[in-house]
Amino acid sequence: MDISSMLIAIIIYLGAATTCVLVFERLGFGVILGCIAAGIIIGPNTPGPILSSSVSELQNIAELGVMLFLFTVGLELRPQKVWALRRLIFGLGSAQMILTAIIMTGYLIIFFHTPWESAVIVGLGLSMSSTAIVMGTLGEKGELPTEHGQTAFAVLMAQDLWVVPVMALVPILAHSTGEADAIPLWQTICKVAGVIAVILLSGHYLLPRVLGYCAKHRQINAFAMVLFLAVIIAAWMVDYAGISITLGAFLLGMLLSASDFRYQIEATVAPFKETLMSLFFVTVGMSIDVNSLINNWSTLLVHVPIIVGFKCMVISVIALAFGIKRAPAIRTGFYLSQVGEFSFVLFAAAAGTELLSSEGHTLAMLVIAVSMILTPIMVKTGNKIADLFLAKLQTLVEGPAEGLERHVVVIGFDEVSQLIAKMLEKANIPYVVFDKDFAVVQQGKASGYNVHFGDMNSFETQSVAGFSKANAAFVNASSRSKTKALAISLHRLYPELSIYARVQTLADQSYLVNNGITHARTSYIESTMVVGGILLKNLGVKEESVNELVTFFRNNDYELVGDGSVSSDNN
């Protein structure tokens, strides 16, 4: 493809995706369904411009977005919290897989007269839910910390663990000639255990030290490259062992959740994650064969709601049995009602061993796609039903500004900021501090300050700092230009927030005041006025005259100094 054709393809892709997302969000269906609709429009199975016929290759690239999303989910859950969820992961999740697979297998045998071997594989595939759609929707709605969000997450993690035995069943049930050459299950389990052990050890001991070195030397670009390299290596290792790549990324994120890099990591990953996640949902739409959808519409119209409904009911009932409250259990069932993206891979493998006929494979793929499309509707329905029970959402996630309201966010942590923090502390005013210098963060933590590592230019870091509920921000960045840019940016994003900026020159102060930052002040001018007053007094000038002179300068915003000031940005 030449550069002109590539640019046209990008224009069509972005135009279709943006238009569909805007329309579907306006209709209340959300970003995900809009991206799927865009994929249907630009995909190879519909009339009009075809951007790519290599849908599977695009899906492989787009799955990196799902991987990065699970990595950020891991950052939200410390190992202690995951261990606390072990009953849900290994108990509820496994029970859901087994019971749903049994029901789906019986359904396929009774109504489709499917051979039992094929019915078992398809039943297991239908039991799995979409990590990308569920976690994406939970993240979009901010519901991951809730009880139903945590329950859904636990079930999805269990389903990822089931990938190995389910894939191992395909050649066994197919009675293929390659069965004798297949790797024994015990060897696969040993390989999986070894890979997970390597990830755990590297993520706990090696990676934090390398990231710490980059942070201490302020090598933010190297920090990002090391981070992505580690995530991709972890994903490759678990893929080599036969597990879903999302599990490896999640484990790595979980190991870094307690580190001081957590918020900077989120800020680094966020732009790539969102873009690739959107591409994933577009590729789902591109994989939908519209002609087959039209030809099988009556079958899909009857059986997809039945499959989705059965799955929703089973998950909700099992969640109730495991002690989940009624409203969260209902929400969990509706959230996980669709068929997951792993089933694309599973059914393709089954078709390759002739466990599935060509017609059965096509129909199974349509069931996956249509169930995904129905997810926003199912989520809305589940929320309406659950709201009838008036259940209160329970939050489990901790953050630096968790529980804080009308607090002060201090940006930059030098001696001046330390004094501000100490004054706030003495006045019993809550605060949180962020700095990009990891060594400064370590020293601040050792001294008992509520200081964290992160770049405040990132929206992700702004979110965890709690700007939407903060009363004020004290901006004290490392350079003049960064202070001015950040102060103005925060003022525009959070107009109700009081911005206090420490600047170096009177020119900078005037610039910020003219842009709405009324509390911009120089630091050296005031200290110079104090020293100058002492000097004048020691030279015999009366204290009353000194006070009048200082008041004169302050009342006129130091105009006499500004008229002849020479500024420098070398510091």
Question: Helix and strand layout, with pairings?
Answer:
Layout lengths: L2 H24 L3 H13 L12 H22 L2 H6 L1 H27 L3 H12 L3 H11 L5 H15 L1 H12 L10 H32 L3 H21 L4 H11 L6 H25 L3 H6 L1 H25 L4 H10 L6 H11 L5 H16 L1 H13 L20 E4 L3 H12 L4 E5 L2 H9 L4 E3 L5 H7 L6 E4 L4 H14 L4 E6 L2 H9 L4 E4 L1 H15 L4 H13 L3 H5 L8
Parallel strand pairs: 1-2, 1-4, 2-3, 4-5, 5-6
Written account of the structure:
With 571 residues, the chain is mainly alpha-helical. It folds into three domains: 1-53, no CATH class; 54-387, Na+/H+ antiporter like fold (Up-down Bundle); 408-522, 3-Layer(aba) Sandwich (Rossmann fold), CATH 3.40.50.720. Helices cover 69% and strands 5% of the residues. Helix 5 (86-112) runs antiparallel to helix 15 (297-321), helix 8 (147-161) packs across helix 16 and helix 13 (262-286) packs across helix 22. The chain is elongated and about 105 Å long. The two termini are 49 Å apart.
Largest sheet: 6 strands, parallel
The CATH class of the largest domain: Mainly Alpha
How many strand segments? 6
β-strand percent reads under 5%
Distance between the termini: 49 Å
**Mean pLDDT across all amino acids:** 79
- Would you identify the CATH architecture of the largest domain? Up-down Bundle
Low-confidence stretches: 176-181, 390-398, 562-571
Strand order of the largest sheet: 3-2-1-4-5-6
Q: How many domains, in number, for the residues?
A: 3
Helix content: 55-70%
> What is the tally of helical segments?
27
Secondary-structure class: mainly alpha
Overall, the morphology is elongated
Oligomer classification: single chain
- Radius of gyration, in angstroms, nearest whole number: 29 Å
